[in-house]
Here is the input.
Amino acid sequence: MSVRIVQLGSGRKAGEGPRIGTVRRPPRGVRKQDHATGDWYDSWLPELSPSPGLVASARAAGTDADWQAFVKAFRREMTAATPARLLDMLALMSRTANFSLGCYCQDENRCHRSVLRALLAERGADIE
Here is the structure.
C-alpha cells in the first residue's frame, strides 16, 4: 500500500486508488461531476495547497533561491494544526491503503507536491 504523487489530469495508473486534489482551485472549465471521470481528483483537500500569496510566489520563482524561499514558507504553512494533522493522517493511511495526491503543475520539482512528498516521507509515509 502506498501514496502516489501525481499530476492531476494525467491518466490514472492501475492500483493508484482515489485521487486527492491538493490545489487551491478546482480545474477551470470542468464541471464538478466530471472531476473524477476526467482524471482530475475524487476528493478535494485545499488545506494542503499553498495560500494564494504563496501560489503567486511559486509561479514567479525564477531562481533556485526564489524557489527555496517558497519551499521554506510553504513548509511553515504546513505546520499549522489542520495541515499538520492531515499530513499525519495521510502518512498513516499510506501504510494500509493506496491513494494519490496531486496538483496541476507539469514539473513536480517546481510544484508544492514535491514539498508534500518530502513532508509525508518525514512522517514515515509509504510513498511510491
Observations:
- The chain has a mean pLDDT of 95.
- Residues 64-77 form the longest helix (14 residues).
- DSSP finds four helices and four strands in the chain.
